[in-house]
Structures are given as C-alpha cells and as structure tokens.
Input
Amino acid sequence: MPMRFPSIIAAASLMSVLPAVSNANLLVNGGFESPALSATFAVYDQGADIGGWTVVGTGDPVNSMAVLRNDYTEYAGTLAFSPHGGIQSLDITGAANRGFNGVRQSVTTTVGADYAISFWVGNQDAAFPAYTLASAISLDIDGTSVGTFSNADNTSADVNWKQFTYGFQATSATTTITFYNVTPSDDMMAGLDDVVLTSAAIPEPTSLALLTVGALGAIRLRRRNRRIGG
Output
C-alpha cells in the first residue's frame, strides 16, 4: 500500500540528521562551582586550575584569584557577596586587587561558525569603603581584547550583577577565552559568574538541500520496495 504522507515522513527523516542549534555551554565550570569550597572563600595563585580555568596574568602572582561562597560576608556580616547563580562566584581581583590577572580556558570550535559568549559582572555596593569604583573586566578571544565590560550599578549591601553578551566567528579549531581584571586598584572586587559559550551553527544552504534530497530519495526507495514486495 502506498504511503499517504511522504512529505511528513521526509521532514521527520530530515530532522533526524540535521544538527540542532546548540544551546549547551561549551565551557566547563562556567559558574565556578568547582571545586566546591570547604570554607567561605579560597584564593589561587597564577598557574592554578579552578575547575578547568587556568589562572593567568602579569599582576601579583600570589592570591591572584578568589572564589567566594554564598555565605562569605564582610563588615561583621552586614555586607554580602551573593553569586549570580549557584553557590559560588569568582572575584577576579583576587585578594585585595592583585592587578592584571585573569582566568583562561580553551575550547574546540568550528572555523567560520558563529558563537556567543555571555557572562555576568558583579559590582559590590559603593557605599562601603574599598568598593567605591566600578567593576571592570576585559574579555580576550585568542589573545586579542574585544572590549572592557564595566558594572557601576549598586545593590544595597550586596553584589549587583549585570549581564553582557559578545558574538564572534571562530577563526581556528581551538578558541581561547580569557577574562582579565581591569578594575582600578582602589576597588577590591569584580565578580564574574555564569559564563556561557554557545554555538548557533546550522548547515549551509547547499548542505541543507543535499540533506533534503537524500531524505526524499530514501523515502521513494522504501515506497518502491514495498510495491515490488506486494
């Protein structure tokens, strides 16, 4: 018996072979939840690994980065350091602003494909001494700075989080993402949290047409075989 809905089946077959638009995070530990802290904070020197991120930079190599847990506080518990999400976040200034240091991670990418990276920059309440200036973080892609992202907004007695997104096209099979602290030295906190790198790569039009023809051809072959077989 001939099939009644070849176009519907063709669409289903095509969907099974098309690569989906990827919303999965290509970075590991984008929320800095690993390693899980046993204390309210931890500091890391240059060269250390923070759950897949490597501490780099030209600033003070000691205590270059700090990871804060959601129960870390200052000023006798009146100043909170809440992460944007999860339990932990990164203070990219390290212990008392160690200068031009940061975290780096490399991922596999497709040359010519489009990618988007989003992240949250945290700024502590300027009403408290040592936190009076804007938090500023520089984003580097493959060793080139693509911009400085600042947050001067305030939340009473806690961290204010502001999201930024940057799109780019991969130029090599491996892309290196680096965030650097560029917060003025008189300010002691710049939060980084929930870093997400995604790909929106879809087939080129020519490839899509070939996939369509292939799917329709397979359906016609099945119909012919059914008729021959009775």
Remarks:
- The longest helix spans residues 205-228.
